[in-house]
Amino acid sequence: MLRWYATALLVVLGTTLPASAGTDSRLTFEADVLPILNAHCLQCHGGVHQKNELDLRTLSAILKGGKSGSAVLPGKPDASLLWKKIANDEMPKTDNKISEANKKLIRAWIDGGAKGKSKSREINLARPAMKPADFAKVIDREIDAKLSGAKVPASPRSTDAEFLRRVYLDITGIPPAAEVTKAFLGSADAEKRAKLIDKLLASEEYGKHLAERWVNLFRQMSVNPSEWEPDRFQGWMAEGFNAGKGWDATVKEMFAVSGFLADKPQTTFYYYNADMQGKFESKIMVGNLSQVFLGVQLQCAECHNHPFSDYKQKDFWGLAAFFSGTSTPNNPPNTRAVRDNLPKQPPKTGTQVAITIPKGEARNAGTRVRAKFLGGEEPNLDAGVSFRPPLAAWLTGKDNRLFARASVNRLWANFFARGFVNPLNDFGDHNAPSHPELLDTLADEFIVSGFDYKHLIRCICLSDAYQRTSHVVKGNEKTEAELLFARMSSKVLTPEELYDALCVALEVPEIAPPVNPKKKPNLKGPQPPSPRSQFVKFFRNPGEVDEPTELKLGVPHVLKLMNEANFNAGGKVVERVMASAKTPEETIDGLFIAVLARPATSAEREKFAAFVARQSSPREAYDRVVWVLINSTGFILNH
Amino acid sequence: MSFSMASSDSKIFRRGFLKLSAAGVVGASSSGWLLPRLAYSSEGRAERPKACIMLHMQGGMSQHHTFTVPEYRAQNEQIQTAVAGVQFCEYFPRLAARMGDICLIRGMSTGNTVHERARVMMHTGYNPNGTVVYPSVGNIASCELGTADAELPNFVSIQGGNDGDGAGAPHRSVPAYLGPRHATVPINDPARGLENLRSAIAQRPFDDGARLLDEFETELQSTRPSIAGAAHQANLRRAVQLMRSDKMRAFELEREPLTIRNAYGNSQFGRSLLLARRLVEAGVPFIEVTLAGWDDHGGALRSVGRRAAYMDPAIASLIDDLKQRGLFDNTLIVLMSEFGRTPHLADSGYNQTLGAGHYANAWTTFMAGGGVRGGRVIGRVDARGGTVTDRPVNVQDFLATMCHALRIDYRKEYMTREGRPMTFLTPSARPVQEAF
Known about the structure:
The structure holds 2 protein chains of 2 kinds.
Chain A: H1 2-16, H2 29-40, H3 59-64, H4 81-87, H5 100-111, H6 132-150, H7 160-172, H8 178-186, H9 192-201, H10 204-221, H11 231-242, H12 247-256, E1 259-260, H13 268-271, H14 282-294, H15 313-320, E2 326-327, E3 337-340, E4 354-356, E5 368-370, H16 388-395, H17 401-416, H18 436-448, H19 453-462, H20 464-467, H21 479-483, E6 491-492, H22 495-506, H23 531-539, H24 555-563, H25 571-580, H26 584-596, H27 602-614, H28 618-630, H29 633-636, E7 637-638
Antiparallel strand pairs in A: 1-3, 2-3, 4-5, 6-7
Chain B: H1 35-43, E1 51-58, E2 78-80, E3 87-89, H2 93-97, E4 102-108, H3 115-124, H4 137-145, E5 155-165, E6 185-187, H5 203-223, H6 227-244, H7 258-264, H8 268-281, E7 286-294, H9 301-324, E8 331-337, E9 340-341, E10 358-359, E11 363-369, E12 376-378, E13 380-381, E14 388-390, H10 395-406, E15 413-415, E16 421-423
Parallel strand pairs in B: 1-7, 1-8, 4-12, 5-6, 5-7
Antiparallel strand pairs in B: 2-3, 4-11, 8-11, 9-10, 13-14, 15-16
Helix pairs in contact in B: 8-9
């Protein structure tokens, strides 16, 4: 019966898939096959369920097979169980069937020998860092190769104005003021872009902005809504960035810290890994550290083995064990600190440190798990001193590729809206990078430069890829072209960037929220937060992480920008421009430069001048012009 | 946020997207602007989608001083309700008269007595675990009952006042894997409604400027298409539509006859319930009204009495008003808290006055309307009110009951961005069948 069935199957196959289905020995499991299995099969044959004892997450597990034997016989698709099950849609059992094209691909892969990826890349970490201009060329070579392979045309170089606003926002978080724009556009210096990059990287705002981004990420990932007065921590990190301190050193100090907030501003980092009552929790820390600093979704393994990758529950708790004695006293602020509860009598050295999986939703509650680096060894720890410094050293070490790769992927996304791996916190064989070689090359360069973000940013900003216009050309209109970096993607301004941009555009030092006439000002109590933080609080939805490609603003935010008096009165900019400009056209140009950091096109100039001419009061007309510009997509986004 | 455009909807943009013609405002006669109500009542009630008004008593509402007065050492008199054998605390005579419409759940047994955690749990069904973020029932309702292109938001949270110690920051629901368009839109003051709905300048120059913005945007998006840009334009369009829509009148409480306003009462809570009713009428599927201040460690006796003075008429009027408008059977009213308060367990010490401490083992919520059977009492507690002796209800079952009433499939699968399938409630969740 079974034989009859198999024969019948072959006949069916013969009719649906001609012999020309193909062989392709260049196909690899990780790059080509695993994404398909991930979408269709791993729900039942992955980390959570392994029906029929079959695990399809790795090539070795597939070759080993389940109850019914090996799932794949290399070179023999018709004899491979995997093929037999998917060919006639017996599997998957859900409606989520595998497309004919993907089936063909899997067959061709088996036919070609069921190969995995070769792991032959040589890493040379003894070399010095490259010159930024040279490394920019390395970046472009990799990007351009992918573009020509996909036959997608690259957009041309950006205009000076486009580049200026972009690089100001990306490096400092603040768009250029009107006089800066005029000077830059007026300069004939051929090296002006490179010089500007150097100037911005040397400014205080560079470190402040990068630190604000990182601390915002920690805050947004925190389950505790407290802000924990982030200024000192942010200032400490900014100082490091501005001084050219390596990211490895900064992160090491963040993880290894012991002592009081008063002496060590980075203790605040531990408070962002506290539970809702403000109590530090090792499992929250491991969930966040794995996503942010290793780029992997280890948090799934808190309760069960990872469904799509090889991580085990003991990998999660193995990391948590390093934080097993760590605590953070809560409130008042002057007592904030990070400490370890260590035994008073130091036990023998070489003790294995372990943690017990607590009762709750997790499987295997009560099991002891030894401290273990992810994908590494179980170190011998001295139970008399904090276990966190050894963890910090491993985490930020040159050998930990996960750290370097996750760090450069995040940095790249700051500039290009997306990383090579997206989501940024989901590295793994199931989610192959778009530019694997470039990702590794950048990670190498990051390591040999001493984990120097400034160096990497200089390289990135000098590349043609970064300096491309965001305007489409024929053939690169689709979003897929953005994934290949054929043109610059538009990025949503963060609430902080939006506030700063509004101050620059309106030429005012701050934008105070409107006063409620019914409410009496409270002169005795605590003073309200700064206008900037009130604005940010209104514009950022709680519990959400900033994403440059996704606009998280909604109608309430737009209503505020459209209707609040602050944004209807033209600010100081209208006065200044009207006082110096001689014609309506000049005034319009001046306002465009101040708000959008570019002159108006001739068509725009004409249209806006006609609008102004129709209005009875010039001042009110120019107020309207500013209103139009700050509410436009061109202002809300960084192109 | 809640009524921002789906970010994938990049084709929505077209010339004239702000639709500024005056035609949009026509038909806004003062008498009949609530077209849906008229339409629904003529087509029959079954056609009207479900809506929910959830009253969140933040801080921990004492069951002993509200709807489950203990037999042992009660601090209040009990009064007979409209249903034989069911008594309320003397503070709530009007609600007692409407017990025939109320389904009381006396066996809430939720096990969490930490404010923030219990609050999250009562909204999401889960104890916050620090790794997975869960949406609230309001976000789920926005997703399942809301209309994608509705002018009004699909989930509104109204701050109904703070009368005492709310114990921490107000709870904010997070849409999590449902996406930002199912976020809640907060209303800080019901009398002011949605902020910034009116322009700071006159309509004529506003329209002129909007028209110029419209033309300017048209050119931008054609050469530099982006999903985020399209979403911004959709937001602009919806904001302008809302400003011109007769639906924004839902926020104008002064349009309500004085008799109705008086019935709800001159309190922030009363105004919040009146606004909630107007929003339901205008098609908003989920409204949460938070009354903060219930953390009565100093004793609940007086403070609940003070609150009851405005709560009792407001909630009773809400029930009457919905009934009178034919909305009651399709609008679920839920009164809940994060936990209840301690019974007399010992007879001395801090937090041992009746109702002074946090207590989650036996407390009370109620539902009314929305197809829920009135006049019912589900669950029983012992004489001290400290132990559920019959029919305990946990958080998952409580939320499943709400979903059941609202016709929401709480086992529907959603995908997180990381590809993890999620359901609102766990497979073990069961609606309390006796409520229907």
